[in-house]
Amino acid sequence: MVFGGADLHCHSTVSDGLEPPGALVRRALEAGLSALALTDHDAVHGLPELEERARGTGLVPVPGVELSTRREGEDVHVLGLFVDPEEPELVARLLGMREARDRRGEAMVGRLAELGIRLELGELRRTVGDGAFGRPHVARALVERRIVASEREAFERFLGPGKPGYVPKPRWSLAEAIAAVHRAGGLAVLAHPVWYGAQETIRALSAEPGLDGLETVHPDHDIGAQLRLSVLASEKGLLVSGGSDYHGPPEGRKAVGACRLGEEEWLRLAAAARDRRAASGRPPVDLSPR
After folding, report:
1. Is omega for the bond preceding 88 within 30 degrees of 0, making it cis?
2. Domain match, 74 and 200 both
3. Which DSSP helix (H) or strand (E) runs through 107?
4. CB of 215 within 8 A of CB of 242?
5. What is the pLDDT of residue 1?
6. Does some domain include residue 275?
7. For the chain, N or C: smaller number of CB within 10 Å?
8. Does the N-terminal peptide bond of residue 249 adopt cis geometry, omega within 30 degrees of 0?
9. Could you list the residue range(s) of the whole structural domain that residue 225 is in?
10. Mean pLDDT by 10 residues, the chain (290 residues)
11. Where does residue 194 rank: exposed (0-12), middle (13-18), buried (19+ CB within 10 A)?
12. C-alpha to C-alpha distance for 170 and 168, rounded to whole angstroms
């Protein structure tokens, strides 16, 4: 069977995406993908739906999560790929993070109310459901209320750092996140490195103890950035990963499968994932087509 590529960075309604996990399976099949990872923010409880909807399709569903961390005062995102979503410490920590996100969402709504912008908290919570409450949910509500014309404007005027509706969210330390991913039998990958600024910063992050890989393929990476990151990964002995960072609806390179890994990179990740599961004592990871 011809390998159709792997998209290892996607989000669903379980966090700040617009489509449920099952819809991502449909999009992956339409894109001709062979493997798809669901990497919701601080959440793994969408993975059973991904697995269920993948049955009988030939797709390989990859269990994942995206963790928001802090390192030396800066935001850094880590993808946990091939994690065991039933690892008890990870499950407990993610539940606590979602509860903290809910309190943060309530605080943001309160700050906006002080500005005379009243959003219905109950309605927002119904939209979030059992997912991870985040700023995009508030931004979309502001668009629906016609307070702003776009989510970008919502962040620029109200929800970005230093803006009147901003409330910082709880975060892991980078070391904590990497350790949690390893305990769950997964690979810790630095997400969208170009977000972190200067090449010196990216190089320092790539040297973080325990880091397994760099996300070299991403919609925000041009060809030059992708090549530089691939060279850096090779220098540091790191794996390479990639994905669309899909949130929905499809738009340019942020469509499921628009950014994908080739077979060689996938096979290296898969081999490393099997080794990590064995070393961690967690159950073997199933990477067979469903």
Report:
1. no
2. yes
3. helix 88-114
4. yes
5. 74
6. yes
7. N
8. yes
9. 6-87+185-280
10. 94 92 97 98 94 97 95 89 97 90 91 94 85 86 93 94 90 93 98 90 95 97 95 97 92 87 97 97 97
11. middle
12. 7
